[in-house]
Each structure stands twice: as C-alpha cells, then as structure tokens.
Amino acid sequence: MSKVLVIGxxxxxxxxxxxxxxxxxxxxKRHPExxxxxxHQLVPELAEQIAECxxxxxxxAQKDITQTNVRLVAPSADADxxxxxxxxxxxxxxxxxxxxxxxPAKAYVVGIPASQFExxxxxxxxxxxxxxECVAVVEKYLTL
Amino acid sequence: MSKTITLAPVTRIEGHAxxxxxxxxxxxxxxxxxxxxxxxGFEKFTEGRLLWxxxxxxxxxxxxxxxxxxxxxxxxxxxxLAVEIPETAEKLRRLLTLAQWLQSHALSFFHLSAPDFLLGxxxxxxxRNVFGLIAADKEFAKRGIRLRKFGQExxxxxxxxxxxxxxxxxxxxxxPLDSAKKDYMLSWIPEAKETVGLALDAVKKIxxxxxxxxxxxxxxxxxxxxxxxxxxxxEYYDGTLRIMDGNGNTIADKLDPKKYFxxxxxxxxxxxxxxFPYYKPFDYPKGMYRVGPLARVNICDYIETPLAxxxxxxxxxxxxxxxxxxxxxxxxxxxxxxxxxxxxxxxxLLNEPALLGTNIRSQASINRLEGVGCTEAPRGVLFHHxxxxxxxxxxxxxxxxxxxxxNIAMNxxxxxxxxxxxxxxxxxxxxxxxxxxxxxxxxxxxxLSCSTHALGQMxxxxxxxxANGEVLDEVRR
Lengths: 144, 477
Description:
- The complex is a heterodimer.
- Chain A is built from 4 helices and 5 strands, in the order βαβαββαβα.
- Chain A is of the alpha/beta class.
- In chain A, α1 (19-30) packs across α4 (125-142).
- The longest helix of chain A has 18 residues, at 125-142.
- By secondary structure, chain B is an alpha+beta fold.
- Chain B has a single domain (3-442), classed as Cytochrome-c3 Hydrogenase, chain B.
- A 4-stranded mixed sheet of chain B has the order 8-7-6-11. A 3-stranded antiparallel sheet of chain B has the order 1-2-3.
- In chain B, β15 (461-465) and β16 (471-476) form a beta hairpin.
- In chain B, α5 (130-136) crosses α6 and α8 packs antiparallel against α12.
- In chain B, 53% of the residues are buried.
- Chain A binds chain B through residues 11-13, 38-41, 43-45, 47-48, 77, 79-85, 91, 94-95, 98-99, 119, and chain B through 11-15, 41-42, 44-45, 57, 60-64, 66, 107, 111-112, 125-127, 129-131, 134, 138, 141-142, 145-146, 148-149, 152, 161-164, 449.
C-alpha cells in the first residue's frame, strides 16, 4: 500500500488562505491511514518526511483560478529558494532528493480557488465549496 | 543625476521588504533605507476576542516563531488573572521557549546565512542558497535541518501541533509532560550538542575569512536591550530589563518589563510600515537600540550552562577594551552561543523531576483590566500588552515585536555597508555588493511577517523625486 502524505498550508487568520489547512484536516478525518500535516507555511524539515513517502499532495489556496487545479511537480532548486517564508513544493522535493536520496513517485500541487484574504477565520462560501471539491479531487487521484 | 538602486524583495528573510540605496551624481551613497512593505493588522483583529483565545490567535501571526507569541500572550494573561503559575508550568514554558530559540536560530544560521559565509558573497547568486550549501557540505546542511527539527519536535510534543498550538494558556499550560516523551527529547541531546559545536567551529572560521569585511557590517555603538535574570544571568522567559550603552556601561537595570511604555517610544517614518522603537530618555533616533542574541549575550553577566558560558567569555574578548561587542556581524556568533545554551539548558530542564509534575494551571477569573507579557523571542524582547473589560474581552492590544526594535539599527547597518562597499569611482554595483547589503539585514534575522502592524494608522507614502530633489508627485493614503 502506498504511503501518502498530504500537506495543507496557509494562514488560518487570513480567510481563504487557510483553504489548504481545512482540506488537509478533512482528509485526515476521512482517511486515517493518510498522514496529514497542517501548517502555516512549508518548512525545510518537511523534506525528510516527504522523502519517506510514495505520494505527496501539497494543498494551498490559489488566486486567479476558478476550479481546483492539480499539477504534477518535480524537484527544482530555484535560484532564490528556499526563502523560508515561501519555500516552494519544488524546492522541498529538491531538498528531499539531495539530502535523503528519495522523492515520492508522484508529487502533486493542488490549488484551491481563493479570493478573500482579509482577517477572518472563515472561508468564503465559494472557497469553502471548492475546498470540499478539492478533497474529492484528492481522493480521485488516490485511486489512479 | 542621482540614481536609486532597489532590491526587492530581500531574499531569505521571513516576509517581504525592500532596500533602497540612493546614489548622488558621483555614484556615492548618500542614503540607504530598509523599507518594510508587508502590512499586518493583527492588533485590531484581536479586539473583541476573549483573553483566553489570545495565545491561540497571536501564535498564528507568524509561522516561524509562533511559540514566542503563545508564551508572551499567556504571560499577559497571567498578569490579567493576577496569578502565579505552578512551578511545573513555568518549567514547561521555559522548555518551549528554548525549543523556539533552537529551531529559529538553526534556520537563521544554517539556511539563511550560511550560504553567504561558506560560499562567499561573490559566489554565483544562482547557487548561493541552501542547495549550493548542500553541494559544498551536504552533512552540514543536513545537520542544520535536523537541529531545527529537534526544536520543532519539542514544540510539537508539548503542544501536539508544531505551530499555533494553544497549549500555553493564561494561568499555565494545558497538558503535563510524560516520562516517555521526556526521554525521547533527551535522546536528541548528544546529536544536538555535536551539531551546535559544528556551527560554532564554522562561525569562528567565518570570522577569519571575512576579517576585512566585518568592521563595516553594522559596526557602531548603540544601546543594547534585553532581559536578565535576578542575578544578571542570560534570561529568556522572565526577569527584568537591562539597558547597556555602546561603551559597555549599564545605564538602566532591573526595569520592570510591565512598564515598557515608560522606557520606549515608537516613531514612524512615511517610507516604512515598520515602526521605529527608541529609548525615550535619548529621544528618536538617538535612542536607537538593538535586541536579540547580540544584545542578550552582551548585557548578561554570565550564562548558567558551562559550555555556553565558556563561549560567552570568548565572545566578550571580541570587544577589545570597552567590554561590549558593537558589531552586528557578531549576531551570528551570539546566535550560535544561544543555540548551545538552549541545548544545554533543555537537557538540564529535562532532568528536573518537577518538569513531570501534574499541577500545571492556576485557575482565576479576571482580576485586572490590563496586563503585559514579556519574553525573549529568538529575535529579541517581545511585549504583549492587553486591555480587557470585566468579562475578559480584549478592548485594545499592543504588540511590540523584536524586529521592529532593531529597525533603526538595521537601517544604520544598511547605510554603513552600502557606503563602504559601493565604489562610486568604478560606477558599478556588483551582485556581491548588493548581497553584502542584504547580508547586513540578515544579521538581525528579521521576521517581517509579524513585525508590521497598526491597522487604521498605516502610513502609505509614495514620492517621486527628481535629481535636484524636487518632489514631482506624491501620494498619501
């Protein structure tokens, strides 16, 4: 059985920015066998945990999209990465590869449509709906 | 015609910022500024919330140092409840503070600053990052990640979540520590000590490698501010404020942190969202002061753990005859000394039987309508000041963040580095020079995510200035 890691990240005080955190929380409830991590932001030590998995999902809020967006990502050591506050999934994968000589067979970045980033602990109605759709999308990808 | 060189964003620091270097007709630096563009309004957001929610809310301000806000907020809550927390709760909170120092300092040293040091300021910018560091010394980079992980694991174990844990609350903490978890934390100590030793070896080599550059890296006299213990030792969780001048004289001591507003004022400048705190008796901007590792290791009389105390004595020798190390480059060395202290002190705390006690929370209702919490966050002293009504609803909150307190000094550092390294005669601004300016800022390890605030009073000033100084256009909001 594949070892799956779901990382949902965002600021839970900034409205829709927390969509990834909420999605990862829901997935954790529905799939206890999946390792789910909820974070404010991506951090370098995740590289070790990522290296131990077969599939990883990075779930984040994303502006300028209208539907949940899924894309496969590969390791990339960008020039200015990691910047700590904005370390990217690609950089984390590169850290896993360089430091632990292993990366998941599949790494997905899942974007949830988001538009409201004011001070709030609530998702907007649209993003809340999209967040639930995102969970269904992740479940679909788990069966592929 | 004058030129303005802008670097935005400053890479490898938390949050966003911009540095502007202004040149005159001869390409000589006439001014340099560290602008903070990111705006956060958490203080306003907390109005109307319950006091007991504040640790959980304020810890979500920042993803890098959440535990510091958590602890400081809980201490402000202790003050409002007017309680003394149980011994076990204080020890557990101290453990959390040290874990926060360790993970934050490890990130700053190994991943943000080490690429500059080990690869050199003039190395290829495309590889002068943690990946370049891995290529140069994989084991060093890996150990840095594991050291940070150790700090994060303590935070996770204590609070069940790595970030934004509401484990610390007004009156104490929510859960005691069990023996198995304590033993697990202790198992990390040998590796952590070894890794910090590698960091200290590296930092000493850096001092030799950059001997010609260090004198221009924020080398000036300023006040130094931080907490010290009752008998003058390095303090991180409690204690009183001490202020030392740039000649090594203690000009104020045993100041009550709860009266911080009597000692420190906050100036604003139209070109930055970040306020400029200053020492009131000296006025602005002469009241410039520095906080954080450089200040803490300078102002204390001793460090209670043996290896860190030995390093403190070596550190103090850098000061020459005046007894105070004024160069901001040595923030890195002080940070490494604090990492060593944190590992040693964590071990000491874990071996104290009282740490496993079960009396962990003092219960009380609202007994005061105002309270102040103060701790030493990784980047320096942090204040939370709350006003509540009789039901514990927040009426007003003021957070004074370490990064803001270094603001005047960071600007002074940028000006000094830019003025020294930019050679107007050559008329060229190399990548290496620009990176030195950024590296000057990185000495302070600023965290801009949480250092900017003041919703409703946000000064926004855009100015268009011609070569002869004429303001062509100006926008204020």
